[in-house]
Design a protein that fits this description.
The protein is mainly α and 209 residues long. The protein is built from five helices and no strands.
Length: 209
């Protein structure tokens, strides 16, 4: 009895779509987990920069320091929209890319996703650098001087150093990585079924001649 390839392909593709829906739910949870981490990082980093640069703070004066705090506060308020902007890039997420068969980088968070977070940190660097605070530096792929005024090759400031993401964020991405493994298996099944259908059609054509 020959296989009903159309039915099998339809069922496999339906199962794959269900999996992609689950992966999207995990992706959204990942973004939600990132927001408080980024907010806390910006707040604590700016506060520490003020603490360790007392002479510069004295030169700025109270009014400018107040304005600077308001600018940092505004960035913190905009973190959710920044997270959307940088982490909604479909290229970063396996279930949103084509083709679906791709490289799986274990369970670790890929560098492009970490870079998306560091772009937000780079925005803090831009704010602070205007008044001479330079510990939150941004950098260029072509300029390794790590100066506040340099930029990466996408024309956006990016925090150049490594970041340590909290365990809860790594855990959520770990769920996503496990779903990638399952997705790769489903994508392979679909590919094999389509190839089988093509071969079967060729044999039927041959037999009919």
């Amino acid at each position: 009895m020959s296989k009903d390839y159309d039915l099998l392909i339809s069922q496999a593709e339906g199962s794959f779509e269900e999996l992609k829906t689950e992966m999207e739910e995990v992706r959204l949870r990942f973004k939600l987990a990132v927001i408080p981490y980024v907010k806390e990082w910006i707040n604590e980093t700016a506060r520490n920069e003020i603490k360790t640069n007392s002479e510069l703070v004295s030169e700025l004066g109270v009014e400018r320091l107040k304005q600077l705090k308001e600018e940092v506060g505004a960035l913190i308020e905009e973190v959710p929209s920044r997270v959307d902007h940088y982490l909604d890039n479909s290229v970063m997420w396996w279930h949103m890319r084509e083709p679906q068969l791709g490289t799986l980088y274990g369970g670790r968070i890929p560098s492009d996703i970490q870079d998306a977070i560091k772009y937000i940190f780079g925005e803090l660097g831009v704010i602070l650098s205007k008044d001479g605070f330079v510990s939150v530096k941004t950098t260029s792929s072509f300029d390794r001087s790590y100066t506040s005024a340099s930029w990466n090759h996408n024309g956006k400031p990016m925090y150049p150093y490594g970041i340590v993401l909290p365990k809860n964020i790594e855990t959520v991405y770990g769920e996503y990585a496990e779903l990638i493994k399952e997705g790769q298996k489903k994508a392979t099944i679909i590919k094999d079924l389509k190839k089988g259908k093509e071969q079967n059609n060729i044999v039927e054509l041959w037999d009919s001649l």
